[in-house]
Amino acid sequence: MSAKKHKCIAALMTAKAASAISSIQLVGTDCENILKKIFKPLSDKPPVFSIGSILHGNIFDGNTPIDEVIIGCEQADCFSINCHGNPIIVENILELLKKQGAEIAEPQEILTYLGRQKHGDNTIAIEADIAETKAATIYGAKIIRHQTKMGLLQSCQWWLKNINTMQIDDIKAGAEQVLSDSKISNFFINGAKIVIAGPPNSGKSTLFNRLCGKEKAIVTDIAGTTRDWLSAKIRLKRIQAEFFDTAGLDETLSEKNIVEAQSQKQAIELIKNCDLVLYVLDCCFRGDNEPPPQVRGLNKLVVYNKCDLANNLLVDGLKISAKTGSGVKELIDEIEQTLGVVDFDIRKTVCFTDRQKKILEKAVSADTKQQIEGLIQELLKGEFVV
């Protein structure tokens, strides 16, 4: 769907849930005509839909009032209806717009249309406008915006300008560097996935609750209390991270019953797909604390918990007490250091969408400059799916 095919498209730009206010955006050449049919201002004067004006009145379906609204005339062929956030009211307005000829779309369709109006065929800039609205941190938003001024846009333009004189391996090396830096920038833009793993009863759930700032996980002295994983998004110093509290890793538990086997399977699957494992051990336990095969070789931090119960603890690793909070701030510092975000320069050239990443990966494995040139052109001006 595009605004070229439909004279008016409309989308709910706020969450699809009850709220104080909801906002519906309309774009296209027929929007003003539709609004004139369904909107009546509170004043006796006829509405003037000029750019920058704000109109106060009611939306009507025939003679039946739906809601009192504020209409913002944001730019040519672009309007916002700000209504009460009752989902029933929102649905009634959308149905009325549809009945009047508007095509109902998703928010990204509106953003794409506005992006094309603003940036023309500059696909990177359009993607940036959309990605910025979803960035997990202010640093992430700044990284994205930089790619439209210097960063990725400038690098692509420079490669194209100098492609005839550059060595193909130099272009590939540049693309590889962008992909490498993008792994770290992604933590600022989308956040990191961190799994809290370890043997049963090592204090994983207590640490999870401590990081959350409240009790989300059940904590007891009984080993194996956690069977289903829990997650929570937590703001660290520089990035946002989603932490996962998992069942204690113990191969013997899988042999007990189907529930235990499924819990072990879920924990292992989460570990495989995370950015960092916090492998939590009970520092008072004197048995075998060797990490299991599922954790070896992964990006991990070994965390010795319950240090408040141990005297003169001599171990190599982070020492904390999830119960008292001792060492948790230092743990957060170490998490960000391990993920590489502490000294990361947010002005680096990176890619910030899957489309950009896939194109750069193809460029790295390309055989000819002609192939690379086509890929860079696609990166700059290609179509994308919202």
Please specify the SSE layout and strand pairing:
Elements: E1 9-12, E2 19-27, H1 31-38, E3 39-41, E4 54-61, E5 64-75, E6 78-85, H2 87-99, E7 103-104, H3 107-119, H4 123-132, H5 138-146, H6 151-162, H7 168-189, E8 192-197, H8 204-212, E9 230-235, E10 240-245, H9 258-272, E11 276-282, E12 300-305, E13 318-319, H10 328-339, H11 354-364, H12 369-381
Parallel strand pairs: 1-7, 8-10, 8-11, 11-12, 12-13
Antiparallel strand pairs: 1-2, 2-6, 3-4, 4-5, 5-6, 9-10
Helix pairs in contact: 3-4, 4-5, 5-7, 6-12, 7-11, 11-12
Can you walk through the features of this model?
A 7-stranded mixed β-sheet has the order 3-4-5-6-2-1-7. The protein is globular. It folds into 3 domains: about 10-115, Gyrase A, domain 2 (2-Layer Sandwich), CATH 3.30.1360.120; about 125-190 and about 345-380, no CATH class; about 190-340, Rossmann fold, CATH 3.40.50. The chain has about 375 residues and is of the alpha/beta class. The model is unreliable at about 215-225 (pLDDT under 50). It has helices spanning about 30-40, 85-100, 105-120, 125-130, 140-145, 150-160, 170-190, 205-210, 260-270, 330-340, 355-365, 370-380; strands spanning about 10, 20-25, 40, 55-60, 65-75, 80-85, 105, 190-195, 230-235, 240-245, 275-280, 300-305, 320. It has 12 helices and 13 strands. Strand 5 and strand 6 (about 80-85) form a beta hairpin. The N and C termini lie close together (about 10 Å). Helix 7 runs antiparallel to helix 11.
